[in-house]
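pasting for the record
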Amino acid sequence: MALGILSAAGKIIIAQAERDQSVDRLLQKLDYVYDFIAQDENLSKVESMRNVLGKIAQQTLECARFIRDYSETKSFWKRTGKNIVAETDNMIAQYNDALDGLMQQFRDQVDRDIFSYP
């Protein structure tokens, strides 16, 4: 029984460490997306790009809030307890998928704009 408890505790600790790494990777992705979009200020002037840029801006704001809220709990152990009941892993995956999807929409829009350029 003691071995089972130790095994379960070990799995919880490993899951929390992996979760922290996932949040760090989400932050890195957020940084990449922001840098990519901010590199050319003329993008916001292109009418066809405004919709997707607005969606990206909204999603980056939501991700930043999530990371801020997640990071408010400084103690590893408190985060572990908090995340046992939270759907943090699913939220991280959803934010990653949303950012990936929006960046693909952005690239697709650029391709359409280039293809339709007279």
